[in-house]
Amino acid sequence: NNQVNIILFGPPGAGKGTQAQFIVKKHNYFQLSTGNLLRDEVELKTLVGLEIETLISNGKFASDETVNKLLRQSITNLKFRDRIIFDGYPRNVNQAKNLELILGEFNQTIGHVIFLNVSRDIIEKRIMGRMTCEKCHMILNEFFNEEQIELHPCGKEHLKKRKDDNLQTVVARYDTYMKVTKPVLDFYSKNANFTEIDGATEIDHITNKINAVLKV
Ligand code: AMP
Hints:
By secondary structure, the chain is α/β, with parallel strands linked by helices. It is built from ten helices and eight strands. Helices cover 49% and strands 16% of the residues. A five-stranded parallel beta sheet has the order 2-3-1-4-8, with helices on both faces. The chain starts with a strand and ends with a helix. The protein binds adenosine monophosphate. The site of adenosine monophosphate (AMP) has 18 residues, from helix 2 and helix 3.
């Protein structure tokens, strides 16, 4: 099967991370979640991590410069060549332009842009229940996945709530999405490789639709 880089696009809580994990497993892809990369920096208390900790917990963006630097490290890793799922990047028009530049520099392209479209009320429920494993990054929901949480292989004590998953921050993040991130769609939606998927349906149903797009 033809491997190409993929952008998963959508509001916070659309299911980008969840779907990326399935694509990684099934198709041997690499998930490039800028949110995960930034949280790793915070966890490791690096210089960057200390700089961005408060920004992230307030639902503000890290600077383009910071994120672009982290991004470049993954794109230049030959192991991931043409097998990257961009999850949470680009988040503004400037980042979209930067992505074209870096990919061009390393002779890579974007094969698919998949937009998971979800309404605001659904997002709120998903984010408020979200639990992430600090070890394997698996995403579950305390309202919908009680059994899976109990049986989680890493141990349920490793499933944690994100600091920015509270109602106040969710509202701010959604606002920023509408103002700054959603306009990026204009950049992609006219291209033949753009697909919109209803992100409000069941996880499996969405996974099937994504697999159909990837034609495997
Ligand atoms: P996420 O895990 O995608 O929900 O991202 C969590 C937080 O990390 C966001 O609310 C931002 O504060 C920050 N972040 C993630 N990706 C980016 C990005 N591409 N540009 C700027 N900040 C980002």
